[in-house]
Amino acid sequence: MKVFKTIDQFRQWRRNEFLEARSVGFVPTMGALHAGHTGLIDHAKSENDSVVVSIFVNPAQFAPTEDFDSYPRSWETDKIKLQEKGKVDAVLLPLIAEMYPSGITLDVSQQQGTFVHVQGLSHQLEGKARPHFFRGVATVVSKLFNIVQPETAYFGQKDIQQTVVLKALVRDLLIPTTVRVFPTLREDDGLALSSRNAYLSPDQRKHANALWRGLSAARDVYLSHKDSSRDEILGAAQKIIDEVSQLTQCEVELEYISMASPETLLEVGKAVDGTILSGAMRIGKKGQLVTRIIDNLILES
Amino acid sequence: MKVFKTIDQFRQWRRNEFLEARSVGFVPTMGALHAGHTGLIDHAKSENDSVVVSIFVNPAQFAPTEDFDSYPRSWETDKIKLQEKGKVDAVLLPLIAEMYPSGITLDVSQQQGTFVHVQGLSHQLEGKARPHFFRGVATVVSKLFNIVQPETAYFGQKDIQQTVVLKALVRDLLIPTTVRVFPTLREDDGLALSSRNAYLSPDQRKHANALWRGLSAARDVYLSHKDSSRDEILGAAQKIIDEVSQLTQCEVELEYISMASPETLLEVGKAVDGTILSGAMRIGKKGQLVTRIIDNLILES
């Protein structure tokens, strides 16, 4: 497993893969690796000759109020996990200064340089809570794809809007990379694996699966009666999360719950197979550390 | 010379160039080819194994009020010129629907899909007269680079802000392509070659070199006294264009004249070697066809 801290050195390695006609699968990450990431590495290795993992906590996708500084960074642990995995050929650990040659500040109004925006898919759902988040994601993924030039890139369904945005990015900009999406990995109680779960106290952790339980209940309503109304479906989710919210004296709070089209990510009145149920939930008392939990599922009979 | 009307067929040709380790030089154009374009082809051929020319009139860089519909399209003549040149290996003539898979309308507020914006270099000079022009340019060039994957791309200095924007695009997005810029080619009287010169009436054509004569006079002021003030330098250009404007009863009108930094494209108070003098001039009576002439030079002792 080769570790590259400069883009130039990585490009030399990549050039050799081209010359030897070896296909490259790519798993971009922000580090703090868990089984969700290593599962994607398994898929990448089974479909490609070589696997590249990048670890880069991307400033452009954090708002000034968010957790850029405190986001978990654990390269030594990550490195051991990747080595044990034994399936990664190259790790790219680029510096912020190399990734943002025109500089980068978290204040969007002050930013200079090149940014990539996917209009129509970036303003709703997660984009409503985090207005410049997908601009940051589309920009950094454009950069990473230009460096790694992968045949295929691997993403988890947990960030489902991200996967829709990135598929549009690749299609619109005619990037010669295929985006593959794999199901969310979960703890035994259903909580989706996430690097930010590390923020949860033991007590918060007990209630953190409320969003998943809510989404699952909403799915059950759809599966039992396909003609269920939007209110009946989403109401089932809302009810479960409200109960937990009361139980925990508002330490758990639903941020949004959505039933949306997989193509436009706009809200729909009627569910069909393929419709996305998604939501975000906050855990933590105001004034203290608040953790956002996001989750989703795709309706399927 | 192979001509490709679909991106897939072009990509097959490109794949073979990769496998044979042949370097590719790229000259993106909007067609209506003149000696400025064929000069860039000469440079591309002298520096690469293969040369690709694209011809695509890019809707995203035209405002609804501009000449997208009437922009000169002359593929049959262009094809003969390219064949006679004998230096072009592949021509890419993509369809709008393939270049804009999410669709494209000239009304920016209605646009959907992925767009690339170079902040800080797109709002001044030409970007002031044409607010979304460089967003359109950066977006289409990103797409073309992802299709053609050239080692080197060739541009004329005539569109100097475009070259600064595209160099920033390539640097910021870490695109593995080198941007090369070559001097503007000119008619005997100094008028910069441009596809839009075809719009000029014989009488307008006689006065069309006023901008270049103005810029040259401004340069002479700088060269004779390095300490000349901004007003002295730009005043020399203004004077010549004003004279022509009076002579032609305002059929010729200066739009702007600029003395700017080559890095930031912001106006400077003091000229030094490397400073860009540029301007835009309109020819044509109001209510009739108005043609914009742009030109520039880089100060150099």
TrEMBL record, chains A, B:
It catalyses: (R)-pantoate + beta-alanine + ATP = (R)-pantothenate + AMP + diphosphate + H(+). Its EC number is 6.3.2.1. It comes from the Eukaryota. Transmembrane segments: none annotated. InterPro entries: Cyt_trans-like (IPR004821), Pantoate_ligase (IPR003721), Pantoate_ligase_C (IPR042176), Rossmann-like_a/b/a_fold (IPR014729). Gene3D superfamilies: HUPs, Pantoate-beta-alanine ligase, C-terminal domain. GO terms for biological process: pantothenate biosynthetic process. GO terms for molecular function: ATP binding; pantoate-beta-alanine ligase activity. Pathway: Cofactor biosynthesis; (R)-pantothenate biosynthesis; (R)-pantothenate from (R)-pantoate and beta-alanine: step 1/1. Coiled coil: none annotated. It is an enzyme of class 6 (ligase). Keywords: ATP-binding, Ligase, Nucleotide-binding, Pantothenate biosynthesis. Belongs to the pantothenate synthetase family. PANTHER family: CYTIDYLATE KINASE/PANTOATE-BETA-ALANINE LIGASE, PANTOATE--BETA-ALANINE LIGASE. This is Pantoate--beta-alanine ligase.
